[in-house]
TrEMBL record:
Cofactor or coenzyme needed: NAD(+)
GO BP terms, alphabetized: galactose metabolic process
Catalytic activity: UDP-alpha-D-glucose = UDP-alpha-D-galactose
InterPro entries assigned to the protein according to its UniProt record, in alphabetical order: NAD(P)-bd_dom, NAD(P)-bd_dom_sf, UDP_G4E
Family: Belongs to the NAD(P)-dependent epimerase/dehydratase family.
Protein's name according to its UniProt entry: UDP-glucose 4-epimerase
Enzyme class, first EC level, given as a word: isomerase
The NAD(P)-binding domain, residue ranges: 6-326
Pathway involvement of the protein, from the record: Carbohydrate metabolism; galactose metabolism
Length: 339
C-alpha cells in the first residue's frame, strides 16, 4: 500500500506542484487548505495532470476539530506543511496574523498529529532565516536571524520543531529552506497565481510580458553585484517539489531532525531574469531602475551540497526552463485560475 501524505496548503503554488510530484512518485495525497490565497481549481488541475483523485478538505490548520476529523477519516503517514502566509511587507503591517497562521497554525497541527500518532512532518522554511548572510554560498550551519515578522515566524517554527525533536527523537522532522521558487508545471495547467500586486519578481515579470502591467520596477541598480541588481538563487518549482519527495523518502526511513537548503547553488541577477524571460516569451519587458526595496539584501544563493549528499537530490532545470514554463502558464492563464 502506498503511503498517504497530508499536504497542508496543497492548493497553493508550491503545494500544488508538490502534490503532482508526490503522486507521480507513488504517494497518495490529501489536501487541507482554507483557500485564503488559492483556488480549488488548482487541486482539480492536479487531478487532471496526475490522473489521481485528490480529496480537498476546506479547512484551517488552526482548527483542531477539523484536523482531528481529517486524521480520523484518512490514514495519514506523513504531513507536508505548506499552509501559511508569505508576504514579507504584509507581515510588517499585520504581525499577529502572521504569528497566528504560521506559528500557532503549526502548534495546532503538531498537537493534532500527536493525538493521531502521526510523527513525520516536512516544514516549508525559507532562506529568509539566514537574514543578511555574511557570505555566499549559504550553508545550513550559517547563523540564522530574522528582519521581519514573516521571517521571524519561520525561524520560530524552526526552533519549535527543534525543541519537539529534542523531546521526541522518535519523530521525523524535515526543515526545508527554500531559496526562490519560480516556474510552473510543464503542462502550463498549474502555476503561481498571486492575488493583487505581485510581491515577487518572476510573477511580476510574467504579468508585464502578458500585458497586465506596464513595466517592471527594478529595486536598486547599485548593489555590489556584477550588474548592480540583486542576485538570487531561483529554483524551478518542480525541482523544489521533487526535493520534497526526496526529503520525504529520507524521513520515512530515518527519525530525527533534517535541515536542508533547497536551491540550485547558482545566482542570477534581476536583469539576468529579465533577459531570460524576454528570450523565453519573445516579448519585451520594459523596466525602470528605482530605489532599493527596504529590507532587501544584495545576494543570496545556496550551497546545495547537503541535499545532494543526504537526499541524493539536486536541481536540474535551467533558468530557460523556469522562464519557458512560467510563460506557458501565464500565456494560457493570463488572469491565473480566474482566466
Ligand atoms: P501560497 O500562498 O501559494 O500557498 C500557501 C497555501 O496555504 C495557500 O493555498 C493558502 O490558501 C493556504 N493557507 C494559508 N493559511 C492557511 C491556514 N491557516 N489553513 C489552511 N490553509 C492555509 O504560498 P507558496 O508560495 O506555495 O508557499 C508555501 C509555503 O512555502 C509557505 O509556508 C511559504 O511561507 C513557504 N515558502 C515560500 C517561498 C516562496 O517564495 N514562494 C519561499 C520560501 C518558503
Ligand atoms: C527577487 C529580486 C528584488 C520584485 C522573497 C522573500 C523570501 C522568500 C522568497 C518566502 C530582489 C527584485 C523584485 C520587483 C525587483 N519567500 N525585485 N522588482 O526578496 O529574494 O525573497 O521571496 O519565504 O522570504 O523575502 O524575492 O522575488 O521578491 O525578489 O527588482 O518588482 O528581485 O529586489 O533582488 P526575495 P523577490
Amino acid at each position: 500500500m502506498s503511503s498517504t501524505v497530508l499536504v497542508t496548503g496543497g492548493a497553493g503554488y508550491i503545494g500544488s506542484h508538490a502534490c503532482v510530484s508526490l503522486i507521480s512518485a507513488g504517494f497518495t495525497v490529501v489536501v487541507l487548505d482554507n483557500l485564503c490565497n488559492a483556488s480549488a481549481e488548482a487541486v482539480r488541475r492536479v487531478e487532471e495532470i496526475s490522473g489521481a483523485q485528490v480529496p480537498l478538505v476546506r479547512g484551517d490548520v488552526r482548527d483542531a476539530a477539523c484536523l482531528d476529523a481529517l486524521f480520523a477519516e484518512h490514514a495519514i503517514d506523513a504531513v507536508m506543511h505548506f499552509a501559511g502566509l508569505k508576504a514579507v511587507g504584509e507581515s510588517v503591517e499585520k504581525p499577529l496574523e502572521y504569528y497566528d497562521n504560521n506559528v500557532n497554525g503549526t502548534l495546532v497541527l503538531l498537537a493534532a498529529m500527536q493525538r493521531a500518532q502521526v510523527s513525520r512532518i516536512i516544514f516549508s522554511s525559507s532562506a529568509t532565516v539566514y537574514g543578511d548572510p555574511a557570505s555566499v554560498p549559504i550553508r545550513e550551519d550559517f547563523p540564522t536571524s530574522a528582519t521581519n515578522p514573516y521571517g521571524r515566524s519561520k525561524l520560530m517554527v524552526e526552533e519549535i520543531l527543534g525543541d519537539w525533536d529534542a523531546a521526541h527523537p522518535e519523530w521525523s522532522i524535515g526543515r526545508l529552506r527554500y531559496f526562490n521558487p519560480v516556474g510552473a508545471h510543464s503542462s502550463g495547467r498549474i502555476g503561481e497565481d498571486p492575488q493583487g500586486w505581485p510581491n515577487n519578481l518572476m510573477p511580476f515579470v510574467a504579468q508585464v510580458a502578458v500585458g497586465r502591467r506596464d513595466k517592471l520596477s527594478v529595486f536598486g541598480g547599485d548593489y555590489p553585484t556584477p550588474d548592480g541588481t540583486g542576485v538570487r538563487d531561483y529554483i524551478h518549482v518542480m525541482d523544489l517539489a521533487e526535493g520534497h519527495v526526496a526529503a520525504l523518502r529520507f524521513i520515512l526511513e530515518q527519525p530525527g531532525l533534517l535541515t536542508v537548503n533547497l536551491g540550485t547553488g547558482k545566482g542570477a541577477s534581476v536583469l539576468d531574469m529579465v533577459r531570460a524571460f524576454e528570450r523565453a516569451s519573445g516579448r519585451d519587458i520594459p523596466y525602470e531602475i528605482v530605489e532599493r526595496r527596504a529590507g532587501d539584501i544584495a545576494e543570496c544563493w545556496a550551497d546545495p551540497a547537503m541535499a545532494q549528499t543526504l537526499l541524493g537530490w539536486q536541481a536540474t532545470r535551467s533558468l530557460e526552463e523556469m522562464c519557458a514554463d512560467t510563460w506557458r502558464w501565464q500565456e494560457a492563464n493570463p488572469q491565473g485560475y480566474n482566466s
